[in-house]
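seq as requested:
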Amino acid sequence: MRWLVGWSSIAASFGTVGAVDAGGEGRTVHPVGSQLLWGDPDPLWAVGDWRSDEIRVVTVATPPGAPTARIAVLGCCGATDEQLRVGLLAARGGALRHLTAWPGSYTAVVQIGRRITVAGDLAGARPVFHTPWANGTAYATAALPLADLIEAQLDIGHLAALLACPDTPEALGNGTPYVGVKRIPPGHALILREGSREITGYEAVASLAVAAPQADPVRAVEGVRDALVEAVRARLMAPRHAPEALPVDPGPVPGMGPAERRAARGAPVPGIGADLSGGSASGTLALLAAGLPGLPGTLLGHGTGAGERLLAVTFNDLTARDHEDELERARVIAANPRLHHVVVAAGEEALPYAELDGPLTDEPGPSLVVSARHRRRLAAGSADHFVGHGARQVLDAHPARLADLLMDRRRRHLLRPVAALAKAEGPSAHSLFVPLSVYRAARKLARTSYRTGLEAAADRLPDANRYAPDLDTPADASLSALAWSRPGPAARWLTGEALAEVSVRLQQAAVRPTSVQRPGEARARAALARHANDHRILEQAAEIRSQRLHAPFLDNQVVRAARALPESLRVQPGARAAILRRVLAGAGIQDLPPGWGAPSHATSTAATRVGLRTALPELLALFDAPLLADAGLVEARVVRKALRAASEGEPLPLDGLAELASTELWLRRLLARRGTCWTGTAAPRQRAVAGGVVPARRTLQS
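struct tokens:
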């Protein structure tokens, strides 16, 4: 786990790096295992196993007596030092958007005198957190260190909102699972001036009164192509890193080659690699990284390096038999001579819920129950590994965007997506009414104001545990998504008190002034933010030392380019595959296997159900006396009954059960933790949860 942390205070100087003014006594506090980037009066540290090229500090020369001007960029950033200086000067004048326009995934911190600016990303994969501390404000890219710093209690109200409405930022607000630790929204920056804080957005907000001009689809797709190519190029141009402290190879093992032995030891392969699942997102990144033209020092201008082949990893789930088409597409793509294909086969030992032990993550997330499955795949990967996470949320159209088309009087663009939903429903009497039902729901959403929509959702939420919509078909899921807010899959198992508390949060958000966006755009951004946060938690849960996961689809420049795509293009069936096909064509890659881009979710659902059935005794023991029940969020008896029913094949939302199990696992790991992230004479002595006990429900802060 890697993070940066710093603070800004009223005092001009503490006297020593990281000192705390407590009763006039100078007492120091600093993060454990940290690297100081700059010191008092507003220090900044990098904590964790950062690579040397992932930390860059550039200072602009100023006249004597002028305020210090410097910028720190942490992560993979494709900007040169001169571009960083230009961005620093632009940020000094207030143009914060320049800090987010470079290729790569990074966090930028700018210091101009006593003014500190920390820019978050557009997707939410690199969030920024802050909390009041020591007559000032502390900030970090992880919430747990700040919770340690102020010895925060758990915010059970936030956990309730996370389970009840995970796709609704209005219910979550700017909170975290820790009381007093706040998160800045995606697309915003945190500005600190001698302890005071300000949160400002750096992206333009579209008007609701006037429809945006229709973008040219061809140029918009070209923009996505250029952004994605630059994102991949930024990773390829970075220095190569070999895994540190490689375990000793025990020597030949019957039936295992060098790659399999290295994966069994849990060490990544030096060089560049990528997932190759047979899908459009991972296949695009693998082909771009293997054959991106124009890289200096490459053989014939192609490839990841002079004579270097890209390692493509395909995960083969032996417990599922309905993914042969994807495996075959992966094999065809891997026939490229610039790819070295490795297939990781796994059986019941890699099923979801097979391993319930793991590291403590910054926040809870549904990936905790599948982290062992992902870790097995990533262990066979490279030190720098591309993954296709985020492509669906960035390029695809959220169903609520149909309402945006009606608001712009573009009804004819609804014909193809509505017809595709009716076709997916199958030949039945119900499918005949799908077009009319979808059109009515989209028109209702287009005519429903933000406040009315949230108030209606708040009124319906307390009944979520007694009535849950049927989401068995794509049409049902689309109809449910055509709303300003909808309950999450775990809401049906929450207590009435927890749902009522989240309902109050929605009612308060409905009357709060806000910059309201179009319903489709707002819901799409919320879905992207949730997925980006889940990806961040997956990185921490499945982390392998010396390995970096790269998700170019979540980069600022790719997200920004994708938002320029016209909605009429997004809502068309197969839009994501068509866009990525044109991206590859623009990079000189034409030959793709038949069926490339076909969606498939059946494999993951089947594996989840088998894993749930296999791990049922452990899950029942986990919810024998759950901490979630102690907090008043669920009733243990109800959850155990749902686990048994789902294992027997009853059509229950498996995602909701995964969220409940992940949150319970996260709570147990948090309370079993010892020590803090801080050291020094004034370091906090307690853990993030004071006393290590979940507080009683009646004492919670919502």
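The longest strand covers residues 69-77.
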